């Protein structure tokens, strides 16, 4: 099959306050929509651009606005290429687009761009390709499209606690019943110790029927900012001494991809995330003792995520779905995968990180852009999304969003 027409557009969504991680802060997020088609049908794919997450070097060198523009231009370049490629499956065309786009941007910038930057730029294109492929082949269910079968009736909502999340905000999270708390660390070693202990102390007195400890679980994310294994061990030993280590469900990405160390001798479940651009890096991390994988279809494309998931299942790596502060409509891509993969040993339900409601200033308005905006599965109750009735239409994944369908206006 071949795509004949491509359009693209975007809108900026303001955040409630600057979003801090990896030592930087963002104030708004570009919401990108692309529409592709031929004479018979068309499909719209969405993405959000997270330059700070995907390549902190680009963010630091170009700044937020120019960094976003660079990623957006990469998406436009991919659409131009798409019209020249004939393909049978989404996997093959996305792999080809990645190869060509990565070569293009590294030659253009003369920089060692991280692969996750290009993957993030391809998310909307890849999603549109999957939906276009589904419509061309009369596929109307996510399970039929991806070969992933139903796994959960309930999914835990994972809130995000950033550097700037206040004590009162954390108390509100716990009071709302959320029990799997993602905590951004990697600021500075002593700061990290103090921060994790403070949050652990706040969780005391709260109960959860969904965790093996019957208490809230902490999920630590260092975003690759630890410089040495000794620095990591210092934190682990501190957590063990303070009797917090047993409350850590998973520890994500302690080291950057150029500072990889074996963690198989450390008594903690470690997950890889942005250092795993493809199944090749997942295999490397597995050999280094990583036994978990944070899947991010909304950041690395559905195509690449499915390939990674296949290997992770083969090696019995524990998987879960991590967010990128996506909008309510794009969240269905993550939710559909989260509903169909096995969960971590420390919980009895699926896991889905979602922090858009905590961070977008117009979240309620954005929910209105969802084709099923009034359905119960969009809102967690006592920290859990109830998927009753969800699989009947897969959360509206195959439905049209009038708002985002109108965004693409620039013809490629």
Task: Name the descriptors.
alpha/beta; Enolase-like, domain 1; TIM Barrel; 40% helix; 7-stranded parallel β-sheet; 412 residues; 15 helices; 4-stranded antiparallel β-sheet
User: Which percent range describes the beta-strand content?
Assistant: 15-25%
CATH architecture of the largest domain: Alpha-Beta Barrel
Radius of gyration: 20 Å
Q: Give a quick account of the main beta sheet: strands, pairing sense, barrel closure.
A: 7 strands, parallel
Structural class: alpha/beta
User: With helices defined by DSSP (H or I, 4 residues minimum), what is the helix count?
Assistant: 15
CATH class of the largest domain: Alpha Beta
Write the topology of this structure.
Layout: E1 5-21, E2 24-37, E3 42-48, H1 51-54, H2 56-82, H3 90-109, H4 115-136, H5 142-146, E4 154-158, E5 160-161, H6 167-175, E6 180-184, H7 189-203, E7 217-221, H8 229-241, E8 248-252, E9 270-272, H9 279-287, E10 292-295, H10 297-300, H11 302-314, E11 318-321, H12 331-338, E12 350-353, H13 356-359, H14 363-367, E13 384-386, H15 402-406, E14 410-411
Helix pairs in contact: 2-3, 2-4, 3-4, 7-8
Task: Summarize this entry quickly.
The protein is 40% helix and 19% strand. The protein has 412 residues and is of the alpha/beta class. The strands form three sheets. Strands 5-6-7-8-9-10-11 form a seven-stranded parallel beta sheet.
Describe this structure in words.
- It is built from 15 helices and 14 strands.
- It has 412 residues and is of the alpha/beta class.
- It folds into 2 domains: 145 residues, Enolase-like, N-terminal domain (Enolase-like, domain 1); 257 residues, TIM Barrel (Alpha-Beta Barrel).
- A 7-stranded parallel β-sheet has the order 5-6-7-8-9-10-11. Strands 3-2-1-14 form a 4-stranded antiparallel β-sheet.
- Helix 2 runs parallel beside helix 4, helix 3 packs antiparallel against helix 4 and helix 7 packs parallel to helix 8.
- It is globular.
């Amino acid at each position: 099959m071949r795509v004949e027409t491509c359009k693209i557009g975007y809108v900026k969504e303001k955040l409630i306050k600057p979003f801090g991680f990896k030592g930087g802060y963002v104030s708004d997020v570009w919401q990108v929509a692309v529409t592709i088609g031929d004479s018979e049908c068309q499909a719209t794919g969405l993405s959000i651009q997270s330059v700070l997450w995907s390549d902190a070097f680009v963010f630091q060198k170009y700044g937020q606005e120019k960094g976003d523009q660079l990623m957006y231009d990469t998406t436009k370049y991919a659409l131009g290429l798409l019209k020249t490629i004939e393909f049978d499956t989404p996997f093959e065309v996305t792999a080809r687009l990645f190869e060509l786009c990565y070569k293009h941007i590294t030659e253009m910038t003369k920089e060692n761009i991280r692969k996750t930057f290009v993957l993030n730029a391809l998310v909307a294109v890849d999603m549109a390709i999957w939906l276009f492929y589904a419509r061309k082949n009369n596929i109307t269910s996510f399970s039929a499209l991806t070969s992933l079968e139903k796994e959960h009736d309930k999914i835990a909502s994972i809130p995000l606690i950033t550097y700037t999340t206040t004590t009162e905000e954390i108390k509100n999270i716990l009071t709302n019943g959320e029990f799997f708390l993602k905590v951004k660390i990697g600021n500075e070693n002593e700061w990290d110790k103090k921060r994790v202990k403070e949050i652990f102390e706040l969780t005391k007195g709260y109960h959860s029927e969904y965790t093996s400890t019957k208490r809230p679980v902490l999920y630590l994310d260092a975003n690759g900012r630890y410089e040495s294994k000794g620095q990591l061990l210092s934190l682990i030993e501190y957590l063990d001494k303070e009797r917090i280590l047993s409350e850590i469900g998973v520890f994500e990405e302690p080291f950057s991809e150029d500072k990889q160390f074996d963690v198989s001798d450390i008594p903690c479940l470690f997950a890889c995330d942005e250092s795993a651009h493809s199944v090749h890096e997942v295999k490397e991390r597995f050999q280094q003792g990583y036994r978990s994988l944070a899947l991010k279809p909304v950041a690395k494309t559905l195509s690449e995520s499915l390939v990674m998931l296949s290997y992770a299942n083969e090696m019995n790596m524990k998987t879960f779905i991590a967010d990128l502060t996506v909008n309510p409509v794009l969240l269905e891509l993550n939710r559909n995968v989260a509903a169909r993969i096995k969960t971590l040993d420390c919980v009895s339900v699926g896991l889905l990180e979602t922090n858009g409601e905590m961070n977008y200033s117009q979240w309620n308005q954005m929910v209105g852009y969802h084709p099923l905006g009034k359905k119960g599965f969009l809102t967690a109750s006592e920290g859990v999304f109830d998927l009753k009735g969800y699989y009947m239409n897969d959360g509206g994944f195959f439905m049209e969003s009038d708002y985002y369908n109108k965004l693409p206006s620039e013809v490629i």
